[in-house]
Give the backbone structure.
Amino acid sequence: MLFVIEHLEPKLSEWLYIEYSHAARIVGKKRLLITNVKKKGEFRKLAKIARVERKRACELFKQRELIVLDPRARKKLSPTDIRVREVIIIGGILGEDPPLGRTRDLLTRTLPRASARNLGKKQFAIDGATYVAKRVGEGKPLGEVPVQHGLEIQISEIQSTFLPYKFPLVGGKPLISRELIAYLKRH
């Protein structure tokens, strides 16, 4: 299985880079391809953590069986979906609360032959979606991947930040990179 993140934000922010890096650690540098990276500096930076391509997924995978993860898709991702398809595409979009449907507008519509699937009603961060898709690809039904809705990050004794997304639980703890926690504490 090849995991593809289609870079869809106008610039590679530090937060986005942290999520991409964590996704690369989750599936391995050789199994992650980041597409639609047009800027030379961003290309060089991302090439250190994953395979990178300037072209969009719709240009690269015209004849391949694809799954695109879209929170608004009608069907949920299942192990059967992954057994018959070679590539799973994740939108490189920082989420909004409530979601704006940008995955459908910016990604799913460019891949009319792809099978659109969701990971449940609430959205995941990019790295969380990558982890869940990997687990489903390993044969675990979506409903058996434990998740937590929302996560509060303590910034200081009197301040915290709430992230309103779903987080997969690994060993009973929400999957979030240490780098992102450090970033949130700095900003």
